[in-house]
Specification:
By secondary structure, the chain is α+β, with helices and mostly antiparallel strands. It has 8 helices and 19 strands. The strands form 4 sheets. It has a 6-stranded mixed beta sheet with strand order 5-6-7-3-8-9, sandwiched between helices. A 5-stranded antiparallel beta sheet has the order 12-11-10-13-19, with no helix packed on it. The radius of gyration is 26 Å and the shape is elongated. The termini are far apart. Bound molecules: adenosine-5'-diphosphate and magnesium ion (MG). Adenosine-5'-diphosphate (ADP) binds next to strand 2 and helix 1.
């Protein structure tokens, strides 16, 4: 019978928790009830802020630490024991060994003839055949990165774990090195987990991804699912320069510094956060004739203090009047305003600000 690998999980992480014990008996729950699975050949990103537990989770999967609760299973596709490869941020290459010896170190257990064949294969895969007798310090950053990858692929692992592997690369080269490594990985038919705090990197890499916060997975899905349907403002905040404004529900509407937004499915008095993407905001010179009341747009007007050009979007610093008590408040908005050259001359002018309500995500603040 044909073995349907597409349906097979390489990894299952089931209700896993892990607690660090401090020197003075204090404890820190670094991983809290985490569950997810990975299919063969699937690429998965773990995205989250520094200290949220990404590296700890990776070490648990690698078997370098053991969970206090829950179970981690790695299913080998071959009949050999499970194999996990790791690539760390510092790459951990051996400086006194040649390129070939660095790779051979990872497959010491193989018969000598097989070792030579496998070294040739992975050197070819990562395009380092001509560098086999060179030492790591003579390689470029991208070549070192590919060597680290070759070494982790040499034992033919079922799963590769990458812990912020591109973090030490120069910004200007980072993207091309990263794309190169990912393309090589895709050719090797291995499942992989990439840990990163860079959303673009996570999205580029992932078939599916998870957003972590404080030891917990907030949401799992494809990059598109998470971008389009974030379950809270925290998840949404990972994707670009979003704006978050807060307010209180009054008679089915949310009062915010950028205007009134319809919010019928929230209870009276609820504290609600509105997540507004830059593309949802329009700004134009103030026109007193404009009707301020619309279900399609939240609207307010404000003084423009200054603008900062950020490439994809422009950051506007505005002074508006708070709706409740008429107090002036300063707000900062990231808006995408490609056609509107705002320069120093327009400062302190009054502008109309419109927010497309269809593009606003509302979350109750707990
Ligand atoms: P990330 O990789 O997302 O930055 P880590 O997994 O390294 O996060 O750390 C998660 C939490 O566990 C942090 O609060 C960190 O300070 C703590 N931590 C990490 N390693 C240890 C350790 N060896 N002993 C005690 N606490 C640790
Ligand atoms: Mg880390």
């Amino acid at each position: 019978m044909q073995y349907d690998v597409s349906q097979t999980n390489v990894l299952s992480v089931n209700a896993v928790s892990f607690t660090y014990q401090g020197a003075r008996q204090e404890t820190l729950r670094a991983i809290n009830d985490v569950s997810f699975t990975l299919k063969q050949g699937e690429f998965f990103s773990l995205l989250g802020p520094s200290g949220c537990g990404k590296s700890t989770l990776l070490r648990l999967i690698a078997g370098l630490q053991s969970p206090d609760k829950g179970v981690i299973d790695i299913h080998s596709m071959s009949n050999t024991p499970r194999k996990v490869g790791m690539v760390f941020q510092d790459l951990a290459l051996f400086p006194h060994m040649t390129v070939a010896k660095n790779i051979e170190f990872a497959i010491k257990h193989m018969p000598r003839a097989d070792r030579k064949t496998r070294i040739d294969e992975v050197l070819h895969l990562v395009r380092l055949t001509t560098k086999r007798d060179h030492y790591p310090h003579t390689l470029s950053g991208g070549q070192q990165q590919r060597l680290a990858l070759a070494r982790s692929l040499a034992p033919k692992p079922d799963l590769i774990l990458l812990d912020e592997p591109f973090a030490s690369q120069d910004v200007s080269l980072r993207r091309s090195i990263r794309n190169d490594v990912i393309d090589i990985l895709k050719q090797s038919d291995v499942a992989a987990i990439l840990v990163t705090h860079d959303p673009e990197e996570a999205m580029y890499f992932a078939d599916r991804m998870a957003i972590m916060r404080a030891g917990h997975i907030e949401q799992i899905g494809t990059p598109q699912e998470l971008y389009q349907n974030p379950m809270n403002a925290f998840v949404a905040s990972f994707f670009g320069d979003i704006n978050i404004v807060e307010g209180v529900i009054e008679k089915g509407f949310l009062n915010t510094p950028v205007g009134v937004i319809p919010a019928h499915h929230f209870q009276e008095g609820a504290n609600v956060q509105a997540v507004i993407r830059p593309e949802a905001i329009k700004i134009q010179s103030h026109d007193p004739a404009i009707d301020h009341h619309s279900f399609e747009h939240a609207h307010t007007h404000a003084l423009l203090r200054h603008t900062r050009y950020l490439g994809q979007s422009t950051q506007l610093s505005l002074i508006t009047k708070d709706i409740d008590d008429g107090q002036a408040v300063t707000i900062s908005l990231n808006a995408r305003i490609p056609d509107m050259p705002i320069d120093a001359n327009t400062q302190n002018d009054l502008y109309d600000i419109f927010v497309d309500n269809d593009q606003v995500l509302l979350f109750e603040k707990k």
